[in-house]
Amino acid sequence: MTMSGRGIHRVGLHGATMLIIIGTIIVLGSVMGGYLLGGGHMGVLWQPFEFMIILGAAAGSFVIGNTKTVLSGTAKALGPMLKGPRHNKTSYLELLSLLYTLFRLAKTKGDLALESHVEKPEESPIFQKFPNVSHDHHNVEFLCDYLRLLTLGTNNAHEMESIIDAEIDSHHAENHAISKAVNDMADAMPALGIVAAVLGVIHTMGSITEPPEVLGHLIGAALVGTFCGVLFSYGFFAPFSRAIEAVHNSDTVYLQCMKSAILAHMQGYAPQVSIEFARKTLPPSVKPSFAEVEDTVTNLTD
């Protein structure tokens, strides 16, 4: 049985996007609805220059405080943030099936039999059976790099574990830098809102001789800066950083799953046992049952 599972890498596309939309509606509906029901006027809140000060300064500080890698990584993270975590139970079933197939080959013909598959996975008939795994270049490269070490004679599982952990930690740290950068920008926005408010007060003081109704409008416009800084921070950008981190954590779990299976195989366990070790590391929300895995690998064809 060839694993098809079309759309596995689109897992959560509609769900995650809908949650962001619903959350945005709740935030804006609660804040603006409460303001209007209390007798407020929406026109007062429309202060584009205040928005420019806050968002522009936030963007500038974001560029100043981060490397090119983080900046480009943040831009690339926006799409996955909207789609949500890529891996669900179905995608893990496919990964475990691929690992089972590779380990079964290695058990029957030796680790050296994996060489042709790991050197050119895009041409491997085994990898081609599992398109949703093989289409992810980063994960395939991670898996093939360590299987290649097996073909070269590496047999110390403890040394291999240290190397894999170091790579996963490095991968995690790079991803964490992205979500942290967005969160740092969120933390700065209330202060930047105060900057906008102070500039509004300075502008108001230059019109101190104006009648009270004019001064009131100017002071209200200045206070919008503080309001927007806090709203942008805690209502949007801080949640965005957590959504990005959730996607990255999901990717780390995927790598940890491969790590557990590889180490179990190196210690001489049967393919079924090796993938069971990997299955047990998965969070309950994406973990297929033992019966589901057993049924899937039993129906695999060469």
From TrEMBL:
Any one of the GO CC terms: plasma membrane
Domain Motility protein A N-terminal intervals: 21-110
Protein name: MotA, chemotaxis (Motility protein A)
Subcellular localization: Cell inner membrane
Record's keyword terms, sorted: Cell inner membrane, Cell membrane, Chemotaxis, Flagellar rotation, Hydrogen ion transport, Ion transport, Membrane, Transmembrane, Transmembrane helix, Transport
Species in which this protein is naturally found: Pararhodospirillum photometricum DSM 122
PANTHER family reported for this sequence: CHEMOTAXIS PROTEIN MOTA (PTHR30433), MOTILITY PROTEIN A (PTHR30433:SF4)
A Gene Ontology BP annotation from the UniProt entry: chemotaxis
Bilayer topology: Multi-pass membrane protein
